[in-house]
Structures are given as C-alpha cells and as structure tokens.
Amino acid sequence: MGVEKFEDLVAWQKARELTKEIYRVSNDGAFSRDFGLRDQIRRAAVSIMSNIAEGFGRGSMNEFHQFLVISKASCAEVQSQLYVALDAGYLDQTTFRRLSDNANEVGRIISALRTSLDKQRAFKTKY
Q1: The pTM is what?
Q2: Does the keyword Ribosomal protein apply (predicted)?
Q3: Would you kindly state where each structural domain of the chain is located, as residue ranges?
C-alpha cells in the first residue's frame, strides 16, 4: 500500500514538528525582534515542509525527487541559521542542540526518501 497524501509522509510530519518549534522559539525575547533572522529561519523551515508537499502533489517521481532536493537544502539553511541564533545569544546550547538534531533528522529522512525514489525510478527504467 502506497502513501496517498503528503500528510502521511514521515518526512513531512517531522518537518512540520520542526517548523512548529522554530516558530515557538523565534517568538520569544530578542529573537522575536530580530525580524530578518526570525523571518528567514521561519521561511526556510516552512520551505522544508512545503516542498515535500508540493513535490508529492506533482504526481511525478522525477519532480518529487527535485522538490526533495530543494527541501533538503532548506534543512541546511535552517541549520546554518540556528548557528546564527546561537551566536547572537537567542538560543541556549540545549535548545540549539535539540533543534539542530531535529533538523538533521529531517534531512536524513528526506535523503532516505530520495534514495527510495531513486531505486524506484531505476527499477521502472530497468523493467
């Protein structure tokens, strides 16, 4: 049985959790007043889940794969911005580590999904 909607994808579910947490931590204190960083990290987090959903909705394995590439890049962007937030004193080490670990997990799941799509595409091409 295949996945019928993007909401069933673990990658999207984990990206949603990460986005929710990014919004929560960037809504407090000095982080909330650094409009540039706050808005950029939020956009990058939203981009992760949005690109998973959009790629899935395209209905093509090739397009889905390409959107996963974009989504994975947005994960890296979030991770980089978390360092900025840590260095600016907006996040403590524990919060930074938790969010960074979550972003890494999302990236690994997206990579595994891409690998799975690659195998499916290779199988369809071969047979």
Answers
A1: 0.91
A2: yes
A3: 10-126
Tell me: pLDDT of 88 over 50: yes
Using DSSP's 3-state secondary structure scheme, residue 75 falls into: helix
Fold adopted by 10-126: de novo design (two linked rop proteins) (1.20.1440)
Q: Phi, psi (5° rounding) for residue 4?
A: -100, -20
Rounded to 5 degrees, what angle do the CA atoms 82, 42, 7 make?
110
> Going by C-beta distance under 8 Å and a sequence separation of 6 or more, which residues neighbour residue 93?
86
Whether residue 55 contacts residue 67, with contact meaning beta carbons closer than 8 Å, is answered with yes
Question: Of 107, 109, 85, nearest to 97 (Cα)?
Answer: 85
What six digits make up the tokens of 79? 């991770």
